[in-house]
């Protein structure tokens, strides 16, 4: 059993791909399809925790696919990768559980299970791969499966089909341009350095930098990578697709997109800039900080005026990813740890809010917040969950978001970035305003005009819908009152990022056949 | 990449692709995307080509085998798995890896183009037009 455990990185990628194919063959048997997918998804989550535990105890794991050494594709599970895999497996298991009862039966049966498994495979692959071209391939798997999932139908059909088409078209065209830019960057990097392995790239670029022969176009390539990952994470100039795509997607997919997919951009930024371009980083820190601040401001200001509940949450995601990038831009150990704490807390709280908004939309039959009101009497579970999420996003104690914002601002002050922190703090107040405005509009006050908008649905939400919401709400609360393990883990990850020598050693000291 | 003609071709393709992407017709945008992706494919291939190089095919047991230091045959007793090129050897082959990269990139762009064409057809069904300026219902 112990010997099999060294195959964990490839298992986490291969099993979802196999499941995607298997799910197509099981179309005639709906019950088996659902049961098998949930079971496998749960096992994947358990295995991802095992992987994190192994890496925490035994150091960085390197898995050579095909035993080609550094010349072939390698999978590297360091603390950052395995931590991100744990996060994505957790959110995807809960989102899958939620979608069994939320997605329309025909759509769920025919393609949803396969595509969801491909999405999980793409996420795990992106986090675990140690090869920059392989990362591009997994990005494309991620892009195509998420595009097809955005157009999946939910029960009730609140979102029009034409809206989904329009949003997906924007998303796909922008991300195709993003992937073309990434290909240019990877090709230029390969032409300059002559390798695609990230650890090898890091060693060679450091050697060139030490010898003073770093070519100028390395900086241009690094800028291209900012465009690529900025497009994935929706930071300022490339943010405008997100508020269209995330609201039109079905709620469990919105939770996946907002909870995990935009974090892929932050992960790529951490991996590429702190491993490959660490000698050129000083030049890009001001750019990243500027873009992050612009993202925070644009997201917060746009969110204030929204009437659509999911659009508000999407703009809030834009604003919050800015804080993560702010931490990345500061670039100290404390700031990176803070950015990771923020990332985890935002993933938990925002997935929970999107899942909750799905329940709310199902209940009210509309996404317009001005057509809701007084729902605290009819859906107490949703209102409490939304309140916990709103408090966490706004950064109120005792929720996880408070700890996240506190450590981030603390790290910024330690690194003496006073003006960026002042701007970020000012727009954190906006967060408080728009989240509580949404809560008051939906749950407080009079019950809406029944003659004009109709009764609320009396349909009770099933356990499939409430259990994921309650689990994530509990996590958001636990990360607030018992934050030490998360902070310790983030600190360890940040130390590995600042000093990538163990990562390089783990990859490079393999026996090349 | 010392080939002027190739460089001009790539830059022209980039120009055509960008021009088509800025058109108002959805189909022209999609054609622009595919032209752009082929420009990138050519760029990748061109990064492996240097002046005076040959195709990356190692022929036979090698007329330059022993002399050049390239090992063509496996020697399992010593743990040598062919082909092995010693660091000091001068090899005038083009880089075969970029062609593998291009193959992957072509397959991926095929899949995305197929998806986006179906999407364009569905948009035409829903909106009754392929004019990209009509796609603004989400702005409300």
Automatic annotation (TrEMBL), chain A:
Gene Ontology CC annotation, any one: plasma membrane
Keyword Transmembrane: yes
Pfam family, one: Proton_antipo_M
GO biological process: ATP synthesis coupled electron transport
Cell location: Cell membrane
Transmembrane segments: 6-26, 38-56, 71-98, 133-152, 172-193, 213-234, 255-277, 283-305, 312-330, 336-355, 376-397, 417-442, 463-483
Membrane topology: Multi-pass membrane protein
Keywords tagged on the record: Cell membrane, Membrane, Transmembrane, Transmembrane helix
An example Gene Ontology molecular-function term: NADH dehydrogenase (ubiquinone) activity
The NADH:quinone oxidoreductase/Mrp antiporter transmembrane domain, residue ranges: 130-431
Main location: membrane
Family as reported in the entry's similarity comment: Belongs to the complex I subunit 4 family.
Name of the protein this chain belongs to: Multisubunit sodium/proton antiporter, MrpD subunit
Organism listed in the record: Methanococcoides vulcani
UniProtKB/TrEMBL annotation, chain B:
InterPro entries: CPA3_antiporter_subunitC (IPR050601), NUOK/Mnh_C1-like (IPR039428)
Cellular localization per UniProt: Cell membrane
GO cellular component assignments: plasma membrane
UniProt keyword terms in alphabetical order: Cell membrane, Membrane, Transmembrane, Transmembrane helix
Keyword Ion transport among UniProt keywords: no
Protein's UniProt name: Monovalent cation/H+ antiporter subunit C
One Pfam entry name: Oxidored_q2
Organism: Methanococcoides methylutens
Transmembrane feature ranges: 6-22, 29-50, 100-124
Membrane-related topology note: Multi-pass membrane protein
């Amino acid at each position: 059993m112990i010997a099999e455990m060294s195959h964990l990185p490839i298992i986490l990628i291969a099993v979802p791909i196999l499941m995607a194919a298997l799910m197509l063959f099981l179309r005639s048997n709906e019950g088996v399809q659902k049961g098998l997918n949930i079971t496998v998804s749960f096992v994947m989550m358990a295995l991802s925790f095992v992987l994190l535990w192994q890496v925490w105890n035994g150091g960085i794991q390197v898995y050579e696919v095909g035993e080609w050494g550094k010349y072939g594709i390698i999978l590297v599970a360091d603390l950052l990768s395995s931590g991100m895999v744990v996060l994505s497996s957790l959110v995807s298991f809960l989102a899958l559980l939620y979608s069994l009862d939320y997605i329309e039966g025909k759509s769920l049966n025919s393609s949803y299970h396969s595509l969801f498994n491909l999405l999980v495979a793409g996420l795990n692959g992106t986090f675990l791969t140690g090869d920059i071209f392989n990362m591009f391939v997994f990005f494309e798997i991620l892009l195509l499966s998420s595009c097809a999932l955005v157009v999946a139908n939910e029960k009730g059909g609140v979102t029009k089909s034409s809206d989904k088409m329009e949003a997906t078209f924007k998303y796909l065209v922008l991300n195709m341009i993003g992937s073309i830019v990434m290909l240019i960057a990877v090709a230029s990097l390969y032409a300059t350095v002559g390798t695609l392995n990230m650890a090898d790239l890091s060693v060679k670029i450091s050697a060139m930098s030490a010898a003073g022969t770093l070519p100028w176009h390395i900086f241009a390539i690094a800028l291209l990578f900012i465009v690529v990952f900025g497009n994935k994470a929706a930071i300022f100039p490339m943010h405008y697709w997100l508020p269209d795509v995330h609201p039109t997607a079905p709620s469990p997919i919105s939770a996946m997109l907002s909870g995990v997919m935009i974090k892929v951009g932050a992960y790529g930024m951490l991996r590429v800039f702190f491993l490959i371009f660490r000698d050129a980083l000083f030049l890009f820190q001001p750019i990243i900080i500027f873009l992050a601040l612009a993202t925070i401001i644009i997201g917060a200001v746009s969110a204030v005026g929204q009437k659509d509940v999911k659009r508000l949450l999407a703009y809030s995601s834009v604003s919050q990813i800015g804080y993560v990038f702010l931490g990345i831009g500061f670039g100290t150990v404390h700031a990176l740890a803070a950015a990771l704490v923020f990332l985890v807390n935002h993933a938990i709280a925002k997935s929970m809010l999107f899942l909750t908004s799905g329940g709310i939309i199902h209940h009210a039959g509309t996404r317009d917040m001005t057509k809701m009101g007084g729902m605290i009497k009819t859906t107490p579970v949703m209102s409490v969950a939304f309140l916990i999420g709103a408090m966490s996003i706004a950064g109120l104690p005792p929720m996880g978001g408070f700890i996240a914002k506190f450590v981030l601002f603390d790290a910024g002050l330690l690194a003496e970035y006073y003006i960026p922190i002042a701007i970020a703090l000012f727009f954190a107040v906006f967060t408080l305003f728009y989240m509580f405005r949404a809560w008051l509009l939906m749950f407080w006050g009079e019950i809406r005009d029944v003659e004009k908008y109709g009764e609320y649905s009396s349909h009770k939400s099933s356990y499939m819908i409430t259990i994921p919401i309650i689990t994530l709400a509990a996590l958001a609360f636990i990360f607030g009152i018992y934050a030490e393990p998360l902070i310790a883990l983030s600190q360890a990850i940040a130390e590995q990022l600042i000093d990538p020598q163990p990562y390089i050693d783990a990859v490079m000291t393999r026996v090349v056949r | 990449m010392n080939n002027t003609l190739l460089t001009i071709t790539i830059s022209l393709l980039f120009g055509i692709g960008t021009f088509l992407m800025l058109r108002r017709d959805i189909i022209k945008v999609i054609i622009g995307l595919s032209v752009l992706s082929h420009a990138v494919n050519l760029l990748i291939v061109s990064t492996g080509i240097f002046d005076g190089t040959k195709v990356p095919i190692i022929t036979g047991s090698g007329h330059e085998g022993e002399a050049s230091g390239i090992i063509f045959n496996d020697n399992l007793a010593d743990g040598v798995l062919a082909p092995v090129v010693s660091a000091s050897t001068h090899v005038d082959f083009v880089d075969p890896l970029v062609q593998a990269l291009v193959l992957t990139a072509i397959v991926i762009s095929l899949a995305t183009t197929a998806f986006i064409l179906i999407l364009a057809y569905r948009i035409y069904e829903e909106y009754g037009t392929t004019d990209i300026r009509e796609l603004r219902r989400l702005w409300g």
